[in-house]
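INFO worker-7 received task bundle
INFO bundle size: 2
INFO processing item 0
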Amino acid sequence: MSNSLQSALSEISEEFAQKVFAVIRTAFIAELGKVTLSPGPAPAPRARAAAPKALAPAAKSEAVKKPAAKGGRLARRSSESIAEALDGIAGLLRKKPGIGSEEIQKTLGLARNEIARPIALGISTGVLSKSGEKRATKYFAGAGAKSAKKAVSAKKAVSAKKAPKKAPKKAPKKGGDEAAAATEST
């Protein structure tokens, strides 16, 4: 192709592209003109939940003071920090028996994943008791051990005694292999 033909074709194609963009732009502006905004108020932005207040912030251990990032895991807690949390929960339940997990969280200023382990430990050792299931669960101060630290040490002693025993390995059956060998030889 000659240079004059090439330049003529490029001019025509550029002119065509500019006309197409102009038509699209005017159609878009016309559609925007038809759109009306509702006269009502704009939706309110979502507010962050306020951090719950703690009853006794000095009583919390260092690991409990630092909650994990949203949706994250907690740092590994010592048995002392779990016992302190359990003491706080048991003390609250002596004052206000029959409250749920959410109210315990709000009152003590703990996250949901921070109270699950102390509550489970308290129920298993008798420091706490519960009635109901799922969201209807209510907790009470139990009739078991009065001190959470004693309960934690008792739980450790019991779990140390219950070391899992390994089951003996079974020897493979020889009869099955011999039968398979006999069918192959025939």
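INFO item 0 finished
INFO processing item 1
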Amino acid sequence: MGSIEPNPVDASDIDSRTPRGRRLLLRWLGWGAVGVLAREIGVGVIRGYLWSPHAGPFGGVIDARPAADFRVGDVVVQSAGQCYVTCVPEGFLALWWYCTRPERRCVVVWQPTAAASSGPAEADDHTFATLGRFSCPCCGADFNRYGARVFGPAPRPLDRFPVRVEQGVVRVETGRQRVLLRQQASRADATPG
């Protein structure tokens, strides 16, 4: 029997521009990774800017409750508006429930049984309440019913939303565009009711 000799391949028959084996696999993996990254960026933009998970009442006007149902010193949680509505002798305040520490975004907690802390003279709730304060669980800052910082590292008072009383109902204008930043809490911030 004769031996079988391999058929020599002419190098000119192979197209050098055609990727083979591992190079093809790496090219597909690279383009696949670029596609996944582009998809994730696109989804992030759509979810973050075009579609808001707070598309419900937050960003609009919410009705807290009838003004006649409030007593001086009351604090009512408005989850839909991400705020606390407080009743002080001068009227009503809607305090955004986020602490003002810039590097954190913690929700302050209303503690109705904690001793009230006296705040600055222009916004002191100690004159009409002995119990209740807002506390930040992250930084330990305390705020009174006017949103004034009475203790802790928070740089300023709680931000607030515009409030109006229409037809006997306390209404709060909520949303990131409606937040009223303030450097100092004052009794004049309250909307008469």
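INFO item 1 finished
INFO post-check item 1: The helical segments are 21-50.
INFO post-check item 1: The CA atoms of residues 123 and 186 lie 5 Å apart.
INFO worker-7 idle
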